[in-house]
Amino acid sequence: MSHRGVTAALSLRGLSKAYGSTLAVDRLDLDVPRGSFFGLVGPNGAGKTTTLSMSTGLLRPDTGTAHVLGHDVWSDPVHAKRLVGVLPDGLRLFDRLTGLQLICYSGLLRGMDRAVVTDRAHELLGALGLADAGGTLVVDYSAGMTKKISLACALIHAPRLLVLDEPFEAVDPISASTIREILEGYAASGGTVILSSHVMDLVQRLCDRVAIVAAGQIRAVGTLDEVRSGMTLEERFVQLVGGQTYVGEGLAWLRTSSD
Amino acid sequence: MVANIVRLKWQLLRNGLRRSTPQLVGLILSALYGLVVLAQGLAGLIALRFSSPSDVARITITVGGSAVTLGWALLPVIAYGIDETLDPARFATFAIPRRRLVVGLLLSSLVSVPAAVTTILALATVITWSRSSLAVLVAPLAAVVGVLTCVSLSRVTSTAFSAMSRSRRGKEVVSLLLLVIALGVAVASSSIIKRLSAPRLLAHVADVLGWTPLGLAWSAPADIVDGAIGTGLLRLALALAFLLVALVVWDFFLRGALENPRATSGGRAASTSDAGLGWFGRLPATPTGAVAARSITSWRQDPRYLSSGVLMLLLPLGLLVSPLTGGSSAWSLAMAPAAGFLLGWSTHNDIAYDGTAFWGHVATGVSGRADRLGRLAPTAMAGAVLLPLYAALACALTGRWSLWPAMLGLALGFLFTGFGVASVMSVLKPYPVPGPGENPFGAPPGSSALTIVVQAVAGTAVFVLNLPLLAFAMGALLGHVWMGWLSLGLAVILGSGALALGTRWGARIYERRAPELLADLARIR
To answer: Does the pLDDT of residue B383 top 50, yes or no?
Structure first.
């Protein structure tokens, strides 16, 4: 395959996107090395979702390029998309399908064989603890189940790169540990994961590489220890992004103990 | 609280317009149209003031008012849906007494172009009735009651239908009700039209309507003008009582929506898919087959498709009303072509029903061809069954079996060219539809003008493409049997050509702008 010699699983160059007069992503460069477990952290509105959407072909960048294992996402989408599994945030699913149908749909859309798709779908349902829910409509799933079924859809074609936008948002601890286990196994076998999250603790435990994004630009990037530079990730994050407001004596009316 | 809800509606409308230019254009267009209707209506109402005898005013206003009220009651079901900016379920988390919520939502429904036109016209009837001082006092009251009845009836239908269509059983009830309503309206209007020449028919109709909930408020002032003060006041009281009943019914359904805001289709999938893959196991394991299986499953599971599907079946069946009530059977000949037209044309906004779930197609890089062709599956299946059947039914009714090839040809021509046009339209300009799980009869504010434009463009294109077929079918109708066979043959050639061209062109557009489509879909939701 042509991507043998490429060292970056995902490579972004000069990526920009503006919504009206708001610059969501500003000439962003980023390399996600092959086999890494990469965490993208940043405050709300930093441009994480926009960046990940532009890396997976869901949102066309104004300028710049995105390469997946050497394939340009925007000029060679067929090859690039074959290598990526996507879990977007804030987009709907075809939720009138059952869990099993939804996973199979993602596989069949990618032109896979039905027998392979069905076998893998049942395996995924089992691994994610959804074996009993395979016949339930996705619209009736809880938030955690929905994340897990989306992850299954992203994994069905055995992608080389997983792009996960907030995979742990609104997920209970038990589902979260299931997801974590599957991702760790995937990364250990040579797959590359890039995920965005607000939960510093989780990123710290899970990822070996981290990038901190704010205002559409990378503020710090490297191995976990390089970025932390002796602090916890959270301290470093607040230091770099800043802007924490001091509440002090404000909001006095909220302190009901004064009654 | 009531003022707050009304203000909220106004603000939402304004902010929505600031976000989207097409919506603004839509609102301006519908406002212009409203102004034209308003001017005509006002002129008519003022002219009625000087008509003698006053009977003309009574008949016109009673019949017109009843028609408007019926329109408001049925509009959410048959047309573009009512404005659901303020979805009652969104108030579930706020501790607002339900009675105030009902009043607030009712008054906020008045903030829209159709409601404004109705209100102004209703108030203008005061001019028409300014023939006695007591009438001038009663007429505004009656007008207010009439307008509020209109608005609350539309809310009753929309909340009732959306509440019912949430459960599987309810869906069936809804489709049955729609059938009954549509047939009822069709039978009534066809028998009225038939007897329109009968002397004083309209006066009789007005007499009857004047005592139904639809016309009570509108005919009350007429009695006052005629000196029948007791009758007039009785009608007004009855109209008020009916308004209260409508509000109580609405309140009842509202309670359901508030106490169970996220109720969905009842949990389990259809028994066939419980076992496993459902349609995904039956159709070919290709991207096209997968898209087709997904479309068919959605048609079966999603009340939004159900409501439009039922209407599509009903409209052609409506053409059977005249033959069944003893009128001319010639109308039934239009059944197969009408069904073909509607089925083909109906897919022109298919992608909008996906909403942002469309990302699945973008992320997997599914080909434009597979996306375009697969989506046609449910309607193509319906057409394969219904069109030959409808054509045969029409021939049986008219006794002219020689027309079968012409009717089927025309129907197939409409269906296939409709598919072709729709395959291009749906990737060009998706317009807003209710989201999954939302009221299937709702419509986003200001969207109806865009909706009408896109629908009209698609409809006209299909019609124009089929002009040659229409000519041959006419020839067959006039007795040239060979023209019927020719039109069937031509339909196959022309139709498959249009289908091939349309899907190829649509596929090319899809592949060029799939991400932009996704952005469009995210914006109109």
So the answer is: yes
Per-residue pLDDT band at A77 (split at 50, 70, 90): very high
Does A139 contact chain B (CB < 8 Å)? Answer: yes
A44 in a domain, yes or no?
yes
pLDDT digits (tens, 9 = 90+) for B355-368: 899 999 999 999 99
What is the CB neighbour count within 10 angstroms for residue B377? 21
A42 touches chain B (CB under 8 A): no
Q: What is the pTM of this model?
A: 0.73
Beta-carbon separation of B265 and A94 below 8 A? no
DSSP codes joined into one string, A163-228: EEESTTTT--HHHHHHHHHHHHHHHHTT-EEEEEES-HHHHHHH-SEEEEEETTEEEEEEEHHHHH
- A122 occurs within a structural domain: no
CA gap A82, A158 in Å, rounded: 9
For residue A88, what is the nearest residue in chain B, using CA coordinates?
B359
Our CA-based measurement puts residue A122 at a distance from the nearest CA of chain B, in whole angstroms, of: 10
B277 and A94: CB-CB below 8 Å? no
The CATH number of the domain holding residue A77 is: 3.40.50.300
User: Within a domain: residue A257?
Assistant: no
Alpha carbon distance A83, B305 (integer Å): 34
The angle at the Cα of B155, spanning B150 to B156, to the nearest 5 degrees, equals 95
d(CA A124, CA A152): 6
B267 lies within 8 A of chain A by CB? yes
* Partner-chain residue, chosen from A58, A110, A139, that has the shortest CB–CB distance to B264: A139
Nearest-Cα distance to chain A for B161, in Å, is 20
* Count of structural domains, chain A: 1
Over residues A167-189, the pLDDT tens digits come to 998 888 888 899 999 999 999 99
Quote the pLDDT of residue B111. Answer: 81
Q: Which domain holds residue A15?
A: 2-91+163-243
List own/partner pairs for B10-15 with CB under 8 A and 24 or more apart.
B10/B108, B10/B111, B12/B85, B12/B86, B12/B445, B13/B85, B13/B111, B13/B445, B13/B446
B323: DSSP letter: H
What is the ipTM metric for this complex? 0.90
* Amino acid type, B349: N
d(CA B463, CA B48): 40
Check CB contact under 8 Å for B357 and A91: yes
Does A96 sit within 8 Å of B265, measured CB to CB? yes
Question: Across the interface, do A135 and B274 touch by the CB < 8 Å criterion?
Answer: yes
Q: What percent of chain B has pLDDT over 70?
A: 80
Close Cβ partners of A144 (under 8 Å, ≥ 6 residues apart) = A170, A171, A172, A174, A175, A176
Note the pLDDT tens digit of each residue in B391-405. Answer: 888 888 888 888 889
Token code pair at residue B148: 């509020």
Question: What's chain A's average pLDDT?
Answer: 90
Q: What is the pLDDT of residue A172?
A: 86
Let me know if residue A135 belongs to a domain.
no
Asked whether the beta carbons of residue B357 and residue A104 sit closer than 8 angstroms, the reply is: no
In this complex, is the C-beta atom of A218 within 8 Å of any C-beta atom belonging to chain B?
no
| Interchain CB contact of B363 with A (< 8 Å) | yes
To the nearest whole Å, the CA of A157 is away from the closest chain B CA by 10
Alpha helices (H) along B79-132: 98-108, 113-128
A77 touches B at CB < 8 Å: yes
Q: Which residues of B touch A109 (CB under 8 A)?
A: 287, 290-291, 360-361, 364, 366, 370
Domain positions in chain B: 2-259, 285-524
In the predicted structure, residue B112 carries a pLDDT above the cut 60:
yes
The answer to whether the CB of B77 falls within 8 A of the CB of B165 is no
Q: At A209, give phi and psi (nearest 5°).
A: -130, 150
- Measured between beta carbons, the chain A residues lying within 8 angstroms of B366 are 109-110
